[in-house]
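Session log. Operator J.P. requested a structure for one protein chain; no other inputs attached. Running the standard single-chain path with token output.
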Amino acid sequence: MKLPNGYGSITKLSGNRRKPWMVRVMSKEKYDEETGDFVQKRIILGYYPTKKAALSALAEYNDNPFSPEEANITFSEIYEKYQKTKAYQTLGNSTLTSRKTAYKYCEPLYDVKIRDLNKDMLERVLDSIDLGSSSKKNVLIVMRIVIDYAYDHNLITKKCTDGISIQYSDPVIDRIPFSESEINKLWSMADNWDVKVLLILLYSGMRVNELLKNNQENVNLEERWIYVPGELAKNKESVRYVPIHDKTYDLVKWFVDNSKKHDNEKLMLNPSGTVITYNNFLARNLARINKVMEHPHKCHDARHTFASRGTAAGIPELYMQRIMEHTPKSILYNTYTHITMPELLDWINRIP
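Structure written below.
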């Protein structure tokens, strides 16, 4: 039977082919600036092993029309479109880093056509990742972003991410708090600028990049706080004023004075005026410091240490949450309770 006009066409290609049945459809009309006319092009929708499969694909296309130019769009091409959206551009630094890392684990899917993608493929990728549940959830988020785009643009009729869940697992990386003897060792080495960085983290509970990437203007020595702006915060709840512990006041002042000396807007500079970056600090400085520690530590261990020592010092959970910015679950505490900086300073200075 002849197909209706504008429905598309099916052609059997010559030769011994695995998928000899070619389906073509017409693109949407586009204005050609050179000719001044609206033009259409024949676009290949796909190749199929049987005529029945080709007819089925053509019928599915006509039931749920999509841009035929995107018929063969791949996983990576859709993600590139997502990277150009406003939603992606407004992601916080921490979320952006997590999203980039998660996307790398999707490499086996990069060149797969979105219409060929299925649930088994996604689950195989997730199963192959030797990381904790939190990291796997980030990868699943990336997969859902791509699949949702395809579904919203009628490229697929079913979301193959539906029904996929990540079972909770204990974190792969163990966090080892600094011991009291290690902290004493650090104070004996406090003349070194890299040790100063670590001590500020230990007595503030800040995430490492909230400190390293901060600007000098976000420090108020008179009122004794460091402001964490939105572009550095993990999420909008993490925007906060962190009280400066009396013990680390001189250390923070050293970095402020050093920044002014080198006329740099960044807060964390080494004595030669070079901005301290996370990768260099981790590879060189923390590695050197770890040689005299009882255990090899990660930067995030300092945040765990702060939480442990603050709790041991009797700081109420609400105040710890405000300093470290973990949003209280209670609407009473989260919305109606107001805490002043003098109160936070009083509590944080109870950490010995």
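Operator note: DSSP finds 15 helices and eight strands in the chain.
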